[in-house]
Amino acid sequence: MSRPDDVPRRDADAPASFDAEVTDAVEHAVEDEVRAAVRQAVSVSVATGLYGISFGALSVVAGLDVAQTMALSLLMFSGGSQFALIGVVGAGGAPAAAIATAGFLGVRNALYSAQLGPLLALRSWHKVVAAQFTIDESTAVATAQRSRRAVRAGFWWTGVGIFVLWNAMTLVGALAGDALGDPRAWGLDAAAAAAFLALLWPRLAARAMQLTAAAAVLVAVLLIPVAPGGVPVLAAAAVAILIGQVDARRRRDAAGGPPSSSTDGPAGTETS
After folding, report:
1. How far apart are CA 46 and CA 17, in angstroms?
2. By the number of CB atoms within 10 A of the CB, which of 87, 155, 255, 272 ranks highest?
3. Cα-Cα-Cα-Cα dihedral of 32, 38, 39, 42, to 10°?
4. What is the pTM of this model?
5. CB neighbour list of residue 86: distance below 8 Å, 6 or more residues apart
């Protein structure tokens, strides 16, 4: 899928009025998509950010103080890794085991960066900042867009929005401690997962996407009983990436194959 940055340049042979109409139509389409991406980002940010209350409360219950809890949210900023770390700590596990488990889950963000890099096309120092906001939700919102401006809007609004709300709600949860009781009673345990599923669901319309998701889920389910925490997630992500690469290569080969003798036009090209 192509991701245009700018309005197309004028064709020297095209009438000026026609060129202006095309330029205006493309500009409006991109602006509409950017606004839609921002709305999506805000809704995801609110749903996911509220879940920070649960992390803050559970972290304090697990034995961390407020400062340590906030340091995790501010610096690590990866919900899955944060919950994995306090889960091991709360169960009496060794610090090395807690760090290793959180690290395994955090590796997936590096996989996201490989996909986001060419879509965002950021300058060098912007990449350093973007790395902090590269999480499940910002990746999902960004990659669901078609134009580069919408990709960037979706990524930054989601990443920054969740960062602010997640840390604010973490502080609230940490200060409240166990006064909130079981977070599941408030429905907070399902908020982030529901928001992420809502983003993923529309992308499963194609048969190839359905098969990829099914294969990734199957691998994760099979590994959960036998593999260390974080490994099933990484394995599922690796399976999805592998299938995607194989499918992309197959489509490139089909599009770039030898041209038919009955046609004189150029061989077809693929946009992705």
Report:
1. 44
2. 155
3. 180
4. 0.64
5. 55, 58, 59, 62, 64, 72, 98
